[in-house]
UniProtKB/TrEMBL annotation, chains A, B:
Enzyme Commission number: 1.14.11.1
Domain of life the protein comes from: Eukaryota
Domain (Gamma-butyrobetaine hydroxylase-like N-terminal): residue spans on this chain: 87-161
Catalytic activity, as annotated: 4-(trimethylamino)butanoate + 2-oxoglutarate + O2 = carnitine + succinate + CO2
Gene3D superfamilies listed in its UniProt record: 3.30.2020.30, Clavaminate synthase-like
Similarity comment: Belongs to the gamma-BBH/TMLD family.
Keyword tags: Carnitine biosynthesis, Dioxygenase, Iron, Metal-binding, Oxidoreductase
CC cofactor: Fe(2+); L-ascorbate
Protein name in the entry: gamma-butyrobetaine dioxygenase
Ranges where the TauD/TfdA-like domain occurs: 202-442
Cellular component aspect of the GO annotation: mitochondrion
Region (Disordered): 1-21
Length: 463, 463
């Protein structure tokens, strides 16, 4: 009757030959000892309810989604061979030791003078006021110092010095701009479907090891979901994990919130009903970027989790039904949320279900059918096209080949991108003796990315 | 030597005849007794530093900006005279007692069935799943019940009932949509310049009186700035005021933050230097919507405050220099903020200095010259146009006719729209015996608007 949980775990792991991770490439490891301990714990707790998890429902651990893209190699920046004033263009041309050239506009150089008068060093912030900047400045003189700094004298005799590496990092070439963009915001997303090999990590390791924490956040950004095992079975673990990053985001549902079947529920999540695929809190104009859900107690029957990759689904829709994509990415839909929890609230928003930036790239999914307002502020002739488009989108995201399903066990903690993923759960049988209980918390991407950058600097010395 | 502060106050008030506010029109009152007490208090404290405020610098109280736009009269909604199924359009036509007609698409009616199966009453949220909605549904039958509800029978025998008033509120006419929009988000902004008659209110009254609190928030939305007098001279008042709304927004600078001249300042604000006009925190992708600043101690010399109406300035720029407006509303500019405070942080954003929505309406100003990144990720040929455009914008906002200046005294608390206003301060002489000290806090507009809607409902019974 009691199957060996370690056998169960091993059967899920693909028989990949043991290999060392590539140089400078982070891998989220599934330490078998830790995993064994966590899984045993989970089954011990759940066994009291006469339940054994179905192997098919347990998230699979795999390798292809676990590896972070290697960072660009830190090159010793080349020195400056020559610096030349191009007066007619009002630019400085810097020729590097490797023969390449970069151009820097005078106004930009003056604006970014690093001297103590122009920059508050302790804050690394500009103290030069824009009213004091001559945006049409000339340049009196440029020299290379002995330590190969670029030294500029301005017409008002002010002097600026620039380190070659500092200049090189800020060069205006399209390639440099692209590389910086990716480094700062990690724009590359890996799309997935029901075949997702979910990135996994150990909860305590993420808390205590910088490399593990960095790998976690890199995968969270790239894949959109990371599964942590081995959290203790007490409330407070989502708060603890958010402190690892910085702080959580308080909302009207509290600092953290308890997903349980509650009388007079102020949210459909606080019932035992099925939750169709949704993002959390589209009733806010800036919905939480990241969500943590920690399983403290699972139901005996039902309550399985589902997720889809919303960015992937939006691209499928764009390909298969461009008109529907056009409507959902342009119509502003009302969402509403009223009630009382942390305090009383009456929240209203207008959001596009598929948010796109100026270039048409999908940046956020905003969709929760429960809080979609009965008020629909669109012209009458757009009502039917809206419903048809939404229906098509929901059909795409509900295709079995797109949905990744799993069942959380006590001690599991899932972290995911709430701007990208839609998540749901099957209905469950509520049982007062063994009440299903998840604890959740929100964070914002700005804070998460801040921690990611700091960890990358600490782990790699990468600035 | 000691001028009578009440005389000083009275001289600032225009000799307007006493008049009753119009019906249902809120007025922020400047109770003279309260003002006298507050101003006396301020001067008593400051007098110890040998300082007397200049009358010209004290914010003026006036009437034209204080009145909230009257709310649309609550009409007894007309009843339904007739309801007719337009099968070919798949719409229901409702004819009202006043002879007007409204059309409601079948799909929308079915989607918004208010029965306990389709709506979770306790959350006022939709429990009907989109997968269970037939967006091409027909309609079997429509009837008017005795209490004049519209009763619909659907082909699957499901029945829906709609209150006339509920339907009327959600009708799809352009006028109804416009009115709802304004009611929910109060889109109307009143532009101002140096002649601003700053809305004022009493701090304790706002805390304890719902009408005063509503008037405060309405003016904050409409004018963008409201000055509160009479806060006590202890830390914690901005937190207390944020609890009146709901909760404050934690950032890397803490729950609240102390604006003082600090050694090794991690922000230019924490020096005694001049701060040019800026919005706070454009290094976040979602900067705080509302800012509170409470004066605990003013400097003996300098430290006067300045504000401009950024939405107004952007419109001036659009008119006077459309190219500059085009550039600042389309170029994504890097902002950065690194350091340690609540915890360590390394924040990066890309924001447009003038944020506009799809229709080109200005929605947010994002500009702080101190945290504008030395990295400028724009093509080389756009660097000079960017600097010229920014220079023009800054020149517009610094024109004396556009800047409203005031001097905060201890006990004053200014509340303003950080998405709309730019604020600054003059440099001051730092004095360790009388250290200038403001305490600040942030909130987001979603939470502020939520409280505003609740207060409006409480004060007016307006749903």
């Amino acid at each position: 009757k009691h199957r060996d949980p370690t056998a169960l775990l091993h059967s899920r792991q693909p028989a990949t030959p043991h290999h060392r991770p590539p140089h400078r490439c982070l891998v989220l490891r599934m330490l078998s000892a830790v995993a064994r301990r966590a899984l045993t714990g989970a089954i011990q707790v759940v066994r009291g309810c006469g339940f054994l998890s179905s192997p098919a429902m347990v998230p699979r651990s795999g390798h292809q989604t676990l590896a972070a893209a290697p960072l660009p190699a830190v090159q010793g920046s080349p020195g400056v061979r020559q610096a030349q004033v191009l007066d007619h263009k009002r630019m400085l041309q810097v020729e590097w030791d490797d023969g390449s050239c970069s151009l820097y506009p005078f106004a930009w150089l003056r604006d970014n003078c690093q001297c103590p008068l122009c920059t508050l060093q302790s804050a690394q912030a500009r103290s030069l006021l824009l009213t004091d900047l001559d945006v049409h400045t000339g340049m009196d003189q440029v020299q290379l110092s002995d330590n190969s700094k670029v030294c500029i004298t301005w017409p008002d005799h002010h002097r600026s010095e620039f380190e070659p590496e500092w200049l090189r990092k800020r060069c205006f070439s399209p390639e440099a701009r692209q590389a910086r963009q990716e480094k700062l915001f990690l724009n590359e997303r890996e799309f997935w479907d029901s075949g997702l090999q979910i990135p996994m990590a150990d909860y305590e390791e993420v808390l205590h090891d910088d490399k593990a924490a960095l790998a976690w956040l890199m995968a969270l950004r790239r894949v959109g979901i990371v599964y942590l095992k081995g959290a203790s079975l007490e409330q407070g673990q989502v708060a603890r994990l958010s402190q690892r990053i910085g702080f959580l985001r308080l909302t009207f549902y509290g600092h953290t919130w308890q997903v349980q079947d509650k009388p007079s529920a102020n949210n459909v999540a606080y019932t035992s009903g099925r939750l169709s695929l949704h993002t959390d809190y589209p009733a806010l104009h800036h919905p939480p970027g990241v969500q943590f859900l920690h399983c403290l107690q699972q139901s005996q029957q039902g309550g399985e989790s589902e997720v889809v990759d919303g960015f992937h689904m939006a691209e499928l829709l764009r390909r298969e039904a461009p008109e529907a994509f056009g409507i959902l990415s342009s119509l502003w839909v009302d969402f509403t949320d009223t009630g009382s929890d942390y305090c009383d609230f009456f929240v209203q928003s207008k959001n596009r279900i598929i948010d796109v930036d100026g270039e048409g790239r999908v940046t956020r999914i905003n969709y929760n059918n429960a809080t979609r307002d009965s008020t629909l502020d669109v012209p009458l002739d757009q009502v039917q096209p809206f419903y048809s488009s939404l229906k098509t989108f929901v059909e795409v995201m509900n295709r079995p080949e797109n949905v990744f399903a799993y069942r959380m066990e006590p001690g599991d903690l899932v972290t995911f991108d709430n701007w990208r993923l839609l998540h749901g759960r099957k209905s469950y049988v509520s049982n007062s003796e063994c009440l299903r209980h998840l604890e959740g918390a929100y964070l914002d991407w700005d804070e998460v990315m801040s921690r990611l950058r700091i960890l990358r600097k600490q782990v790699y010395g990468d600035s």
